Amino acid sequence: MDVGLRERVPLRERVPWGPMGPVGVVVDPRTWRAVPYLLVSLFFGLTWFLVVAFGSTISLVMMVVWVGFPLLLVTVVAWRGAAMLERRLLWLAFGVRIRDPYRRRPERGVMNHLKWLFRDPATWRDLGYLILLAPLSLLEFVVLMVLGSMSVALILAPFREALMIGAAFVVNTPLERALAVLAGFVMVVVLAYAVRGLSLLHGTLAAALLGGGEEERLRASRARGIDAAEAERRRIERDLHDGAQLLLLSVAMDLGRARTKLDDDPEQAKELIAQAHTGTRAAIAELRDLARGIHPAILTDRGLDAALSALAARAPIGVDAVVDVGERPPAAVESIAYYIVAESLANMSKHAVATEASVRVVRAGQMVTVEVWDNGVGGATMRHGGGLAGLADRAATIDGVLVLSSPVGGPTLVRAELPCEW
């Protein structure tokens, strides 16, 4: 199933870790998912620091000869590659999704590529993150090793002959061993909170440096919006050329032939005029469909509830539609929400093999949430240039988010969050 979606999210998307009690923190798998990365990040931090430090130093020293600049170029490319790897690891470890914030690569020209590489602020923020990663990862490693070793030692106290804590206190009696085990479990809770605190600290730093600033995010959003508008313009142009334009050309030819035969062969002229009339009606229908594709009249006149209900009624399977937006949101939000639902239902009809689906659009404050769910075969892939990719780009123009969840075997969920203020 190809729904044509390249998942687009803001450059920084953090998994919301809400407040939890001690038991919740300990049993939450997200807590311990971060531990392997926190332990091995010291290796990555030292490695990247050495690469950056030695590469940059040697490059600057060798700049007096021609070798210095190529070596510097290799170093810059290496640290950008390291930053890209870090973004992927952070998603696996902390659930912090950070998109590559780099400016668009130029199509050609060596000098253009060099300017693109060295003038991009994200390149130098990557450098700052890699430099800070070494001391931060050292702190993480020390905290986890100290707390972890203390927890294990206390919990295993009953299985050892004696356990010395500090310089004077020795755990030897059964009561002392029981208290040591209890203290060990308390230390596990402390360790769990430490893991979450370090994860939050690391994720926040990474999001600030690796995710780009507000200016870059807005620039990328505007660029995607321009691309989406250009793609829409080409689609309308193509539909006009292949549809209504050909029909109107045929009508003009029929009327021209009818005019030449009006005196000599009135009957054939009538047939040609009737044929032109039919062609005119077809052209009008084509233009009406095209206008509906640009912006449906029912959406303008009656709002999202009526427009989405009409979409659900035309679906080949039963679609449960719930729309609760209260006061009508801005026209841009209504339009994007409508096309998200329309594209999702169209893809469901083509690929999903679904038997039931639902559409839910609700407004909470200044945020409209759109969810389209179906119980089809799932397995949706992310494909650049597809229909929902364009919708995600539209959503990005108003700082919206479009996310796809479609495991193999289903179900598929397309979820969008669209702000009413931007």
Automatic annotation (TrEMBL):
What are the residue boundaries of the Signal transduction histidine kinase subgroup 3 dimerisation and phosphoacceptor domain, all occurrences included? 232-297
Q: Does the keyword Ligase apply?
A: no
- What parts of the sequence cross the membrane? 34-54, 60-79, 127-157, 177-195
Q: What are the Putative sensor domain coordinates in residue numbering?
A: 37-210
Instruction: Quote the EC number.
Output: 2.7.13.3
In its UniProt record, a GO molecular function of this protein is: phosphorelay sensor kinase activity
An annotated GO cellular component of this protein is: membrane
Which reactions fall under this protein's catalytic activity?
Answer: ATP + protein L-histidine = ADP + protein N-phospho-L-histidine
- Alphabetical list of InterPro entries matching this protein: HATPase_C_sf, Put_sensor_dom, Sensor_HK_TwoCompSys, Sig_transdc_His_kin_sub3_dim/P
Q: One Pfam match, by short name?
A: HisKA_3
Ordered alphabetically, the record's keywords are: ATP-binding, Kinase, Membrane, Nucleotide-binding, Phosphoprotein, Transferase, Transmembrane, Transmembrane helix, Two-component regulatory system
Keyword Isomerase on entry: no
Residue ranges of coiled coil: none
PANTHER family (alphabetical): NITRATE/NITRITE SENSOR PROTEIN NARX-RELATED, NITRATE_NITRITE SENSOR PROTEIN NARQ
Entry protein name? histidine kinase
